[in-house]
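Q: What residues go here?
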């Protein structure tokens, strides 16, 4: 027995990505990449692209966008790659402060050993 609405899922995903099965090798998006819209949607745009541009008026991560669209992350990355190539979004990786203080690293190591 199949679930309602699931039978057409592969066809729908194929249509959304125009047959592309995954992001390009140089695609800069990972799950935590923050995406920000650089322009507003225009008439005639694909509905998923419009939804992404509206969602990313404020920074949103790739995984958040995929969850909101209810699409697999790979498909979402393809759509984001389209928008990035058109200059409609920008991608930023979260800032990760580097811990270079040896005393802090030593305290972390001691704490881990105590676990």
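A:
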């Amino acid at each position: 027995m199949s679930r309602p609405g699931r039978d057409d899922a592969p066809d729908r995903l194929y249509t959304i990505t125009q047959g592309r099965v995954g992001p390009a090798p140089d695609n800069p998006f990972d799950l935590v990449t923050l995406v920000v819209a650089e322009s507003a949607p225009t008439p005639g745009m694909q509905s998923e692209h419009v939804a992404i541009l509206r969602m990313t008026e404020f920074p949103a991560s790739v995984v958040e966008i995929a969850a909101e669209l209810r699409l697999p992350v790979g498909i979402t990355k393809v759509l984001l790659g389209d928008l990035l190539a058109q200059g409609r979004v920008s991608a930023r990786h979260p800032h990760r402060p580097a811990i270079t203080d040896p005393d802090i690293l030593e305290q972390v190591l001691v704490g881990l050993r105590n676990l």
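A: Context that may help when evaluating the design: The chain has five helices and three strands. Confidence is low (pLDDT under 50) at residues 1-5.
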